[in-house]
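Incident log, structure service

09:12 report received: a user says their structure output differs between two submissions of the same chain.
09:20 pulled the input from the user's history:
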Amino acid sequence: MRVVGIIAEYNPLHNGHIYHLERARALSGADYCVVVLSGNFVQRGEAACTDKFSRAAWALRAGADLVLELPSVYAVAPAERFAAGGVRTLFGTGVVTDLAFGCEAPDLRTLYQISDIITSEPPALREAIKRHLSLGKSYPRARFDALAEYGVPRNMLSAIAQPNNILAVEYLNALRRYAPSIEPLPIERIGTGYHSEEIVGEFASATAIRKAIVEGRREILNTMPNFVGGPLLYDEQFIIPQEALSDVMLYALRRMSPQELADLPDVAEGFENVLWRSVRAARTLSEFYDLIKTKRYTLARCKRIAACALLGISGEQVQQAVQSREGSYLKVLGFQKKARPLLGEIAKKKTAPLLLRNADFDACPAFARQNAETDMLSTDILRYVTSQDIKRDLSGPVIL
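09:34 re-ran on a clean worker, output below:
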């Protein structure tokens, strides 16, 4: 049995994702497709455009056979941790044979060369990264400039400057470390760039689509399946407005001491003091971000810090998740009825707890329960700040 895995956010699902799903199946010759999906909060440190069960249903209607949740400790994270969590979840099924991922240039040789340099991190490169970090640069920028200084060829630098290629390299690193038996399957991205806000024909980036939804622009309907575009554009109760989380995020941050702020993931070098002062000066979340973001602490990093404060994710929790397998689990968000044989195989071959029923959750190791409870808290928060009747975590998966 061949099973292709995909790690995604579908925030929202669009025609480019449909293309990726179809190509993943075709190129791998897979019998089944498993999607590991970010939960209610995504890598940008924001709530997803809508809840995880709705997005899981989209994935199933688009062709996925099984959708598993990417735990929040990995979903609200930089590329390295995001990739590691997705790969470990796929490997935990015991059945996934291929990992399909999008990239701007599907040249595995170039991507592997970059991966080799990054994972080995020669002393000269390590020192160059430290030096560029000391100039106040973000880690991705510091690493890029250090690689250029180290003498990495122009074609490799050009490749790693592309957002999807950066994540592709992290997938290769994670496969080597956690799942060497899973084959990488790069698929070239089509349409506009990852961060492009242009809408051209039937393809657009998720960034452009989210912006167009807020502006009520109907042309985005051509870029998504009807079952996604219609509700997002016309049902005001369906989409989750980011401003709805402003008060609860500020409250979560304000109630923390400087030491508790220092214990949040990705907080270092005394930044907790900046957070403590700024959250007391800001009246809105946007004001707070304006006060704290810098070249070193990018807006995305600041948003992830705030999201972790809201969800109660500590640096210790993240470190423990990365260093051990005890916190891993396979939370089923949804599956196709025809995929029951796949679930049967996973039940026999899995190396992490399979959470399908309430009793499965109760039988989990303590740390896996802690991580899963973080995911459930995210659902409760969204139910509180919105008027949506969002499906609860222990009410069972979506079944199509």
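09:41 both user submissions now match this output. Likely a transient worker issue. Closing.
09:42 reviewer note: The radius of gyration is 20 Å. The mean pLDDT is 93.
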